[in-house]
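Q: I have 291 residues here and want to know how they pack in 3D. Can you give me a structure?
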Amino acid sequence: MEFEQYDNPGKFYDMLKHLKITNIIENELMLGLTHLLILDPNHFDIPPFLATIKDHNKVILCAFMTPPWSILVHGVSSLDNRPFQVLIEHLVEEKIKVPGVNGESEFSEKFAEIWCYKTKCQKRLHMASRLYVLKEVYLVKYTPGQLKKAEMDYLDLLIKWTKKFHKEVKLGVKEEYIKNHVKFIIETGNAFIWFDEQPVCMVFFERPHEDGVSIGYVYTPAEFRNKGYATSCVSSVSKHALDPGYSYCSLFADLANPTSNNIYHYKMSYFSISKKRKISSQLGKHTEGNK
């Protein structure tokens, strides 16, 4: 088996686009994040880790990591341990810190098991989620108000809401990254607010690329919840995404959150296209040399 690391996000993106191992949408997260690096190479503080494992010149496993986020892994179905061992051996040898792993259950569980065995650490499940994809927006009954693109006047408010969003989903993210990311989303015209006399809900376009866009950072402050604002906001943003030519919208929903799954699956007619994903945000203590 052959390990290959990529210095050029464009080359890695082209590889992902033409990868035949699965439906391309099932690798939506890695595809979108790689495209983000093409648009904004310095979006993350640390250079990304982009790699593939090949068997007989065919890619069978790919990996992506932009610290402090977990490593993403994706590959062909029913992989044995060897490709993961090759990947992990390189990470350990290069002393690359891995805070966690994200991917379809089949891949993330296998990576976590081998990593923990290799580095003598423990794993814990942080979140189980499911990928939904939308190709058509059905009519829904909107709540009072309207959708507007967020301007820089709302930077402080959206930073505040984004901090609360990250706190609720329990993802430890540095404040500086949050500030820079929200500013980037507003500047690129990808931040939206639902107004009902005042801002009541936000939604971001995340990781747009040639074929699709992800709906993310859906957040309604506690005092405005249970009034249908998120449904109205997501519906309007999704329609806005599909109208100019994106072929689909994608969205990850926490399986432990019945509200988000209800909005995306039933009211919005999103449909699940992949097995549940697992994020193990902590892989315990690493070996002494892996810091």
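Q: Anything worth noting?
A: The radius of gyration is 19 Å. Confidence is low (pLDDT under 50) at residues 266-279, 285-291.
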